[in-house]
Every structure is written in C-alpha cells, then in structure tokens.
Design goal:
It is a single chain. This protein is an all-alpha fold. It has 20 helices and no strands. About 75% of the residues lie in helices and about 0% in strands.
C-alpha cells in the first residue's frame, strides 16, 4: 500500500513539473514561472504533510525521490560558484577601460558592503532586543541536537585560530585547493586570487599591449562561455524551486515553526528595516529610490526564491548594467565582491541577532561594550561568506565562537532556517546592487537616462 501511495505522489509531482514546463512553452515570463514554482511547491508540500504527517514512511520516501530535483539544483548552483566568482572578477578587469581607477572603485564597493553590514548588524541587534529574543528558553529536539553536533564540529576549526590568523587564512595559499571549496574561506580566497590575476592583466596590457589584448580577449570569451553555463543552470530554477519548497514544507515541523514564530517575525522586521536603509542610501546620492525598487524587484524575487546569491549573480550584473545604468566593470566588481564580502542578511543581521539571542544563556550581560564588540566582530566575520546556502551558518560560527558563545544553541533555528534564508538572500543581493549603484553615482559614471527610464528591459535568465 505504501509503495502505491509513493508512486501516486511522485506521479503528481512529475505532472506538476510538466505543467511548469508547459508554461515555458507558452512563453510565460521567467520570474512568473519561478514564483509559480514557489507557490505550487508550498501548496503541494502542505498537502503531503496534511495527508501523511512529518514522520510517515510514505512522505520520507517521497521527499527522498523529490530531492533528486531539489538537491540536484542546489548542487548545480554550488558547482558554478567558484568559476563564476573567478571569471566575473577577472572579466571585470578585462572589460574595464584601463584608464579607470580600479582601486578607487574597488575601495568604495568594499567600504559600502562592510558599512552596510555594520548597519545591518546594529538593526539585527535592535530587533533582537525589541522582540526580547532568548535562546535559553528553547528546547533542542533530536534534529536540533544533530545540528548542534555538526555546528560544534565545524566550529573547532575556527576556534583553533586567533582573529589575526583567521584574517590571514582569507589569503589563497593554494588557489587550486580553494577552487574545490575545501576551506570555509575558499570563496574570499578566490576573490583575492582573481583580483591579483586582474591586476597582473592590467600591467601586462601596459607592458606588452599585443599580448595583453590577446589575453584580454581570451578572458572575455571564457567569461561569456561560463555565463552560458550559468544560464543553463538558471533555466532549471522553476523546477528546482518547486521541489525545494515542496520538500521543505512537507518535512517541516509546524509546531517548531510556531514556537520560533517570534524569531521569524523579528528577522523579517530587521530585513525589511535594512532594505529601507538601502533605499535611504540610494536617495542620499540623489537617485530615485522608487526607481531602484522597481528595477531590482525581479532580481530580488529570484534571489528570494532561489536562496542563492551566486545563482543570482548574472541577473544582479544585468540589472545594474541595463536597468540602473551602472558601468559593466563596476557591476561585475560589486556583484562578485557581494558574493563573499559583507552580505547584509547572512553575515550582518543573522549572526548579530544570534549574538543577542544566545548571550543570556551564556550568562553574558548585553551592555554597550558587548554590542559594539559584537558589531565589530560581525563586520570582520562578513569577509569570505559563500554565495550559496551555508554562508550564514559559517558567519554565525565565526561570530559566536569569537564572542565565546555556545554555538550549539544556534541549532534551535534549524526548522525555520529555509524560511528566513529567503529574505536574507534577497537582502544580500540588494546590498550588492546598492554598492555598485552608489559607487557609479559618486564616480560620476552612472547613466542617469537609463536609471530614470521607465523601460524595464528583459533580463536574460534562461537560454
């Protein structure tokens, strides 16, 4: 009987996949298909849980098979992170006018990313205090205990290093090892490697123009090649999002979500507040914040549903270039740096909230000194956060271990992690686009006609 029910569930699952494919054949807009996949996945997952419950063998086996598409999509996103980060930064050097001042623009982008992360941390702390979040009152179940053990194991690597040693570990000793993502700081190491390679390209073009132009042309060609690969992966997004949402809802413990509802509410209050700060920053440069919201909403929706800053990178860069009027080089730099530096949601709000939430359980008084230290540590820890799921966990581990807080208590949030991660990812991408837009505006390089235009050019997310 169980086997028959599993087969029926999977047939329905595949039928819904087919319906999403039909939408593509009918030329339904990509962002609409992504949202449709999200909503259908939520409904399908909820129906499965209502019928079978969380721990039923039928639902366990069904979601295991459904994970082939959901987890497979995530693994494909992880596959493209390192080559995408590397070639995007190197491509930015290859495409920029060699007269451009890279150091000036690069410094501004990084400063904005880290500055907004500090603001995000302060907002996260404020939200945690206003909502009176306290992890000591929450109980760890079986799943949470397993997650706690995993976090403690991951933390041992971080705790064995002092803060200066952690900063040194950001540099690439063996870039080929970092391309495998072996180290927790592999992403930022690849960023540094790409920057060094880009700077060497600038020198090569100046010292040997003929050779330099050949290398530059080759890099541009490889960049376009990798972007075609990215488009192939992104074209699978509606199906991947559908499977991920269905699995998440079908296996979620709604009682746990209810128990953690205050944390979810506080998190989204902080995320929305920080997005409003982004709009204020845009307005302070003399640009229309409403235009920014309109022109970035499609990309932010994709980031929200995919939960991948790296997967959103092509749309991020395109949005800056063809909708916000940001030069290609600045768009590439801000998009790529934003994958691993100063993610406002995952590396700003989230670890700062945990720092306040867990402090009472450790018997630590939350005073002005503690708060200032927490913000500083959060900003430093925001260096090297991966652009695909797991970055927030790494940031939390670094912050909590540095602040001598019990890491295991962060495991209580496992049941609401996917729900919060959607909002965090959208905020990460917004922070990245804000850094590029503000840098271009303050450099006097933004195309105001493009920015102020009401025409929303289509973003090519699919092949």
């Amino acid at each position: 009987m169980d086997i028959l029910l599993i087969i029926i569930n999977l047939v329905i699952f595949l039928t819904l996949i087919g319906a999403l494919m039909l939408l593509k054949k009918r030329n339904v807009k990509f962002s609409y298909r992504v949202m449709t996949g999200l909503l259908v996945g939520l409904v399908f997952g909820a129906v499965l849980q209502l019928i079978y419950g969380v721990e039923n063998t039928v639902i366990t086996t069904t979601t295991d098979w459904m994970a082939i598409i959901g987890d497979g999509f995530v693994r494909l996103l992880q596959m493209i992170v390192m080559p995408l980060v590397f070639i995007s930064i190197l491509g930015a050097f290859a495409k920029m006018d060699m007269q451009e001042k890279f150091l000036k623009s690069g410094f501004k982008i990084i400063l904005i990313l880290l500055g907004t992360t500090a603001i995000a941390a302060a907002i996260g702390i404020t939200a945690a205090l206003l909502f009176n979040l306290d992890a000591s009152s929450l109980n760890l179940g079986e799943a949470e205990n397993e997650r706690a053990s995993s976090l403690e194991t991951s933390a041992q690597e971080v705790e064995d290093q002092t803060l200066p040693q952690q900063l040194v570990s950001l540099l690439p000793a063996n870039p080929f090892l970092d391309f495998t993502g072996e180290r927790a700081t592999s992403t930022i190491a690849i960023v540094f490697f790409a920057v060094f390679m880009g700077l060497s390209l600038v020198r090569l073009v100046k010292s040997s123009p003929d050779t330099g132009e050949k290398v530059r042309a080759g890099i541009v060609a490889v960049n376009e090649w990798v972007m075609q690969l990215v488009k192939i992966i992104l074209a699978l997004t509606p199906y991947g999002i559908f499977a991920i949402m269905a699995n998440t809802v079908a296996t979620s413990d709604f009682q746990a979500i209810y128990d953690l509802g205050l944390f979810v509410l506080a998190s989204y209050a902080a995320l929305i507040a920080m997005f409003l700060v982004h709009l204020v920053i845009i307005s302070l440069t003399g640009l229309n914040p409403v235009q920014y919201f309109k022109k970035t909403s499609e990309t932010l929706l994709f980031a929200f549903t995919s939960r991948s800053s790296a997967g959103t990178l092509p749309l991020n860069i395109q949005t800056q270039r063809i909708r916000l009027g940001v030069p290609s080089s600045i768009a590439n730099f801000s998009g790529s740096f934003g994958l691993s530096i100063g993610q406002n949601g995952c590396a700003g709000i989230y670890p700062a909230m945990l720092g306040i939430m867990i402090a009472p359980a450790a018997g630590i008084e939350v005073n002005a000194t503690y708060i200032i230290t927490l913000i500083a540590v959060t900003v430093i820890a925001s260096l090297g956060i991966a652009g695909v799921g797991g970055g927030a966990t790494f940031a939390a581990i670094v912050v909590l271990s540095t602040m001598n807080l019990p890491i295991a208590l962060a495991a209580v949030l496992i049941s609401v992690e996917p729900l919060i991660d959607m909002g965090r990812t959208a905020l990460n991408v917004s922070g990245s686009m804000v850094s590029g837009t503000v840098t271009a505006k303050t450099n006097g390089q933004i195309d105001k006609d493009v920015y102020n235009s009401h025409n929303l050019d289509e973003l090519t997310a699919e092949v």
